[in-house]
Amino acid sequence: MAGIPEAVPSAADTPGEAAYRRLRADVIAGRLAPGRRLGLDGLRHIYGAGVSTLREALTRLASEGLVVAEGQRGFSVAPVSLEEFAEIADLRLLLERHAIRESFAAGDLDWEGRVVGAHHKLAVIERRLLAGEAADPALWNRCDLEFHRALIGACGSAELMDAYTGAYDRYLRYQIVALAFRGAVAAEQHAALLAAALARDAAAACEVLEAHVVGCVEHVARTGALQPFAPRRPRSPSAPRRAAG
């Protein structure tokens, strides 16, 4: 399964913050699979944190929609569904389209350079994937995020960027679990987004972005990629056979 890089530890992190960041990265990357029960005793040995610290970290993740708090039963990784993916995609579109309009209007030459540089790295990885060469899917995921963040990087609002990052991370979990790289169509849409950015054509960029994100959801629906993660329904007991008479 494709993944994203491990959470990078910081000397300034408290034990609680370090556990939260590692758990969050593992949920997003699919290393903790959708629906998995998160027993605190087992996690204590994996993450090197106490039960109370882990409970606090998991409660934070539950507030972000990445973990489900089950009362006395503990915690589990949030399940995935096509319906939720479509809702998260809508939220991402709402935030990213607004940020694109603000960023394209305010971006300067340095912003253009960051957008071009981010697209260059993404395009190199996409060319390798399209050619069937060895390429790290985790690197593609990171470059994809860097490019989209560069596009909106001049929006001028830290709150908007934070909200977008939260929505994108939930979208990324689906991308890793079910989608991966969609091929030439995704690469062409990224190139079109770059062209729109350099032309400061926010309307064109928003149109391409919608096709890009909606296309991802439609691809997942068409391929049934989320079906392996659907919760299993208990089998209904067989009806008793009627005695012959």
Describe this structure in words.
- This protein is mainly α.
- The protein folds into two domains: 15-77, Arc Repressor Mutant, subunit A (Orthogonal Bundle), CATH 1.10.10.10; 82-225, GntR ligand-binding domain-like (Four Helix Bundle (Hemerythrin (Met), subunit A)), CATH 1.20.120.530.
- The N and C termini lie far apart (57 Å).
- Strands 1-2 form a two-stranded antiparallel sheet.
- α1 crosses α3, α4 packs across α7 and α8 (184-198) runs antiparallel to α9.
- The protein has helices at 15-28, 40-47, 51-63, 82-106, 109-130, 137-151, 158-179, 184-198, 202-223, and strands spanning 67-69, 75-77.
- The model is unreliable at 239-245 (pLDDT under 50).
- It is built from nine helices and two strands; from the N terminus they run αααββαααααα.
Topology:
Blueprint lengths: L14 H14 L11 H8 L3 H13 L3 E3 L5 E3 L4 H25 L2 H22 L6 H15 L6 H22 L4 H15 L3 H22 L22
